Amino acid sequence: xxxxxxxxxxxxxxxxxxAGLAAALAVRVSSAVVGVxxxxxxxxxxTERRGRAVVLTAALLLxxxxxxxxxxxxxxxSVLRAEIGRAGPALVEITGPARRSPFAVRVPVxxxxxxQEALDEPARLDLPAGRAxxxxxxxxxxxxxxxxxxxxxxxxxxxxxxxxxAHVILTASTFQIVGHRGGIGGVADRIRxxxxxxxxxxxxxxxxxxxxxxxxxxxxxxxxxxxxxFRASGLYHLLAVSGQNVAYVVAxxxxxxxxxxxxxxxxxxxxxxxxxxxxMAVGWQPSVVRAGVAGGLASLAWLAGRPRDRWYFLLVxxxxxxxxxxYSLLEPGFQLSFGAVAxxxxxxxxxxxxxxxxxxxxxxxxxxxxxxxxxxxxxxxxMLHFQAAPLxxxxxxxxxGPVVAPLLGLALVSTALGPVLPEAAWALSWLNGWLAxxxxxxxxxxxALPHAQLTSWRTxxxxxxxxxxxxxxxxxxxxxxxxAAVLAAMLAIVLLGWRLRPEHVPPPPQGLRIVMLDVGQGDxxxxxxxxxxxxxxxxxxxxxxxxxLRRLGIRRLAAMVVTHPHRDHVGxxxxxxxxxxVGFVLDPLEPTDSPEEGALEREARARGVPIIPARxxxxxxxxxxxxxxxxxxxPGLPGEDPHEHGVVLLASYGQFDALLTxxxxxxxxxxxxxxxxxxxxxxxxxxxxxxxxxxxxxTDPKVALISVGEGNDYGHPAPSTISTLDxxxxxxxYRTDExxxxxxxxxxxxxxxxxxx
Length: 757
Known about the structure:
Layout: H1 2-5, H2 9-23, H3 32-47, H4 52-76, E1 87-94, E2 99-100, E3 104-114, E4 117-128, E5 137-146, E6 151-152, E7 155-156, H5 157-162, E8 169-171, E9 176-180, H6 183-198, H7 205-216, H8 224-233, H9 243-260, H10 264-282, H11 286-304, H12 310-324, H13 332-346, H14 348-355, H15 362-386, E10 389-390, H16 393-417, H17 422-447, E11 453-454, H18 457-473, H19 479-499, E12 512-516, E13 525-529, E14 532-536, H20 545-551, E15 559-561, H21 567-570, H22 573-579, E16 585-587, H23 595-607, E17 611-613, E18 619-622, E19 625-631, E20 648-653, E21 656-660, H24 666-669, E22 679-681, H25 692-699, E23 703-706, H26 719-726, E24 732-735, H27 736-739, E25 741-746, E26 751-756
Parallel strand pairs: 4-8, 14-15, 15-16, 16-17, 21-22, 22-23, 23-24
Antiparallel strand pairs: 1-3, 1-5, 2-3, 3-4, 5-8, 5-9, 6-7, 10-11, 12-13, 12-25, 13-14, 18-19, 19-20, 20-21, 25-26
């Protein structure tokens, strides 16, 4: 009670409300009795002066608990969930910007009608890649209601959507815009469209996308490579609207009022209106709402003649977000936003005081202090949600930070000047384009550095320990000892970074990802979905397939396939099992004296990994991926060519099929009569195969992959094989000796191919 007495009453009340709203996530109390008790406590507090703040806090805690439970029940309620598997006409309203991938367009919507039934329920709409409906449009379409995916590869799509109140996915092939939403949502759409149209006149492409990201918090215009670089560099937070944006809006309104000689109270009301309009334009994001509430309360505090209290503003912002959706507490955006702001309040003054003993300019010291505080607090949150945290966030923010405020200010000024002085707006936007290019350059530089991202809790903890150790050593009193301690800590951090593995990890696949690794003269193919990964052949030992898997972000294998016991296919298998958890090994178990096969069997026994005979007719599923064994029918006899009893697989994902042949050529594969496929793995590194043409006509592939070593001694791929492949109509041919690592991505309908040397 004494501790509570020292807390200012407004802070105590706001904290109690937040605690009650958060408690609903653990236990729901939907009974009206709780609300009645809360009202009674509030009434009692009005008549009793002693302990009034504590009683009111208890009342708000109960009220928040009751209200949060009601909101969670409303968010969990779904009419469309009963329609899963059904198709019908639908009318939907686009509530946010579209997210694009190589295969699809995903749009947040509110379903107004489905199969003639009136509704008002959020959902997600998935459309084929291409044209997307604009935000605010009302769209008519024929949609299939589908269930979101469950936990796959660390991401639970169903839970993620449920926290937004969405429980189904609508899929459609076409749509027709039939109108636009009205009301407050329509006003917000028009404000956003007006800002988007005028924030960077004359600037196009990547530069405009960066400006839009800083001003509106949208990264849809950035290509995936630059978006990944912003994440890896620790600069991605610049593409999310923050308190700085709201502060500039408020400052701009107050400055304009001062220039025009308008009274301060009118200026504060104008600032409130501007903040509300900006919030409507950029949408309901935790950082935006938090900053908007703080800006609005600051203006109200001035109008009421009350002191401004940043901690109180922060708590009220949290209460507003949680009152609307208590699930917000579980979202990374909420945790990152409030964690970063709290770290600025608590840690930045202490870090600045510590840096005051060093010859660092004051402005740079502030940037370093903010970067250190925010980076240290947000790193565990990023690791928890995304299994990755940027390593160079302090350096990248120190280099990029100085241009963010001018970029934001120029964008807002050019937006305001556009309607009245378009030439001046164009000039400012031209200058702003260079600032945006600089910001993108910083992201690319720091995001491309070796070890740019940490993906291990152990490494993150070790780095944090070294930083803390260096800080403690820096407190050594003698100047010489202090300098030596700091240098020792810096050296330790550098050595740790040197030992870290490069972490240019691609994002998880959105569908099926097939990666033909560049293993030289050998084979190594990864089949990956969000549900996990399967490795087909492990290349020769010198290819370092285990390390290649780690660089792809693969930390475990659902299964590993050995097509036959030759060194160039099984050589790296033992090392893979030693480095990564493996569910089981699928092996033809041919009679052999191969030392590499023996090493695989020993390592599998030591690790408790079962080895299952690969036999025709067996099939396995990994999420939506189905893998069928087409061959062999047995292990073969001693002395027979292992290629004749090698594993042949058919991998199917939706309507996309891939025939993986290992080294088994057409005499083995053609009699299997495989159906049409989109992808053919050319057998035996492209060796001469007289029946290849018949196999191509039988399977009609669209892309053929050859795994072959550059300048190999076997003459692979054979000229006759290349001639046959080149002569087959509509077939694209890729080979690792010329193209390096080959990646094929498919959503089950369409596919794309990219190469990387």
